[in-house]
């Protein structure tokens, strides 16, 4: 189950993820971005720092090439979170509709050309969404979104680790951040 207060506290982290999961830009690697979104006490900080340090060993051109080779040309490292399990099935279409309804519930309209399970879009939404006044709907809708993220990033992380990709640190940090935003069974009492 999702903890909306914890999710709100993590919004700067989701903004960071959204930026680093889209096509790279020089400003994405400015030190202030790391400082604004992360502190050394964050449970995902070690993974983020590993990602950050490894990416700074490359030129921007090399990072762009790495991004394209990693996310655009390999099915197993796609940024579409329902693709791993459902590929192009009818169930995937239904899930995409449900995710799109979540965006619309909070006033975000996505371009018709964009699929609602695109990881950078999902992170951007978690960064920008305001769910005050929609607590019941937010709990249900965002729990579904986090379940999709949990499942999709699990498969993505396994493949990135197999490839020894620097992006594995980013996805591990995302997964650790998602975990922080859930209420564990022990907390429910």
From TrEMBL:
Transmembrane segments: none annotated. InterPro entries: DMSO/NO3_reduct_chaperone, NO3_reductase_chaperone_NarJ, TorD-like_sf. Pfam families: Nitrate_red_del. Keywords: Nitrate assimilation. This is Nitrate reductase delta subunit.
């Amino acid at each position: 189950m999702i903890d909306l207060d914890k999710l709100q506290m993590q919004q700067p982290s989701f903004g960071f993820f959204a930026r680093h999961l889209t096509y790279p830009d020089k400003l994405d690697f400015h030190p202030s971005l790391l400082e604004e979104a992360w502190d050394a006490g964050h449970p995902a900080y070690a993974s983020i720092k590993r990602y950050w340090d490894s990416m700074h060993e490359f030129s921007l051109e090399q990072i762009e090439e790495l991004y394209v080779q990693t996310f655009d040309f390999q099915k197993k490292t796609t940024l579409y979170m329902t693709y791993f399990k459902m590929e192009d099935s009818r169930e995937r279409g239904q899930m995409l509709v449900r995710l799109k309804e979540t965006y619309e519930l909070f006033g975000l309209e996505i371009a018709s050309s964009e699929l609602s399970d695109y990881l950078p879009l999902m992170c951007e939404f978690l960064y920008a969404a305001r769910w005050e006044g929609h607590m019941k709907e937010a709990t249900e809708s965002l729990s579904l979104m986090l379940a999709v993220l949990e499942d999709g990033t699990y498969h993505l992380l396994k493949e990135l680790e197999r490839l020894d990709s620097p992006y594995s640190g980013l996805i591990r940090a995302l997964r650790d951040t998602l975990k922080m935003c859930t209420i564990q069974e022990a907390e429910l009492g």
